[in-house]
Task: structure prediction
Amino acid sequence: MLAGSIAGCGGQTRQPLPTATSPVLGGRRVRTDQDLFVRKTVTIGYSVDRRPIRAVFVGDPDVRHPILVVGCIHGNEPAGIAVAKRLILRPSQAEPEPALWVVPVLNPDGLAAQTRQNARGVDLNRNFPTGWRPLHQPGDTYYQGPQPLSEPESQAISRLILKIRPAISIWFHQHQDLVDLSGGNPRIERRFAHMTRLPVHRLNRYPGSAATWENHADPRGTAFVVELPPGKLSAGATARFAHTILTLAHTVQRSDLPN
Result:
């Protein structure tokens, strides 16, 4: 079970959760304004150095298959955090609201140290089960860890993914400025690339990568990598990426809303 956290990301307050006291007509619960937009923060785990790893849910809790956004898995690739924060802080718009789980920082120790790896020197994007094998030694840039899911950070996000079963997962990286055809639905990946004005490429399928594992673990969903450009994203680019994610969420989740 995911443990609830009182504090929100960036000081964000928690919106009321839906209650069982919503009006009922003809045997059906009638959705109220309170039901349509929830913002809640949970702590899904702790890093090697015991920093909390937080995930924020934003949107309609009745949507069955949310979108997952991971802003930073490598500590020296932080540009996606800006997109994650913009998604978290977005105001409620109008029905139908999409549903998103946002993990701004999966690797807080690496972010603090400005290193690709976590505090044990493990590249988290080589630590997932699918295709995992011991190709690198401790101290190497791409050290995969002693075994699959050996790290608390990869354990935390894998538990969340298997619990929520996202329709789409977007993993932000840097610094190649492209969308990777990562093994999910290529139409979704190409549409995201078109809307964000990025080229599409098929990068190598690295053993133990998060997106490869996720596409293998739940073939009904689509997980893919977005390589942002070097440096800090501009406000315009941040807004464009966030808008694209919300547009995709509306498209894939509309059929999940209750009749």
Notes: The first helix runs from residue 33 to 36. Confidence is low (pLDDT under 50) at residues 1-32. DSSP finds seven helices and eleven strands in the chain. The first strand starts at residue 3 and ends at 4.
